[in-house]
Amino acid sequence: MNTELLLSEPELHRVLRVCNDFLMAQPSLAESRIVCYKWLVRAFEQRFGYRFHPSRLHQLANLGYLSPEDTARGGHRRYYKLRSPEMTAIVLNNLRQRLVHVVNEAAVQWCRGFPEQYRSGELMNFPALRETLLANRGVINSGISENDKPLARYFEELESKEKQELVEETLRIHRGYSPPSSSDP
């Protein structure tokens, strides 16, 4: 399973996430869970606001994440199932954790630019940090290792909602911050 290609092509990663989520939500046994493009495209479009090309499923099969299934149901649909659901879940979780690590390293780097009193406890300027992380590639790229540079580029290519989720997760980890609820003024 090639995880580096998932980093270089965020859309491929998104398709795999939606495919995994869709298949894991099915009530049938893991061995009998299948998916086709028509079923996935709706969920993908709701989540990301656009449709992906059906060839992305074939690419995931070539990378070892999906395996083509019998198309005896008729029609022109191509059915797939996860080759290894456990391994796919591990890869997706590891990729997310690596992304959170990169964002957290950027947060630490950003904090170093402030006097000590602003780096501790409640004085931390989390809204400014959130906006800086979401908007500034330089902050993400500074203070991380060369091995993480592809992750920083990947972060920049994510949709704004995905970036927001990662930044919020990072800020929750970083000094126990939890964002205000949407009902707060």
Give structural notes.
The chain is mainly α and 185 residues long. The protein folds into 2 domains: 3-83, Winged helix-like DNA-binding domain superfamily/Winged helix DNA-binding domain (Arc Repressor Mutant, subunit A, Orthogonal Bundle); 89-176, no CATH class. Helix content is 60%, strand content 5%. The chain has 10 helices and 3 strands. The chain has helices at residues 3-8, 10-25, 37-48, 55-62, 85-111, 116-119, 126-135, 137-141, 149-157, 160-173, and strands at residues 35-36, 66-68, 79-82. A 3-stranded antiparallel sheet has the order 1-3-2. The chain is elongated.
Spatial arrangement of strands, main beta sheet: 1-3-2
Strand proportion, as a percent range, falls in under 5%
Specify the biggest β-sheet.
Answer: 3 strands, antiparallel
User: What order do the helices and strands follow?
Assistant: HHEHHEEHHHHHH
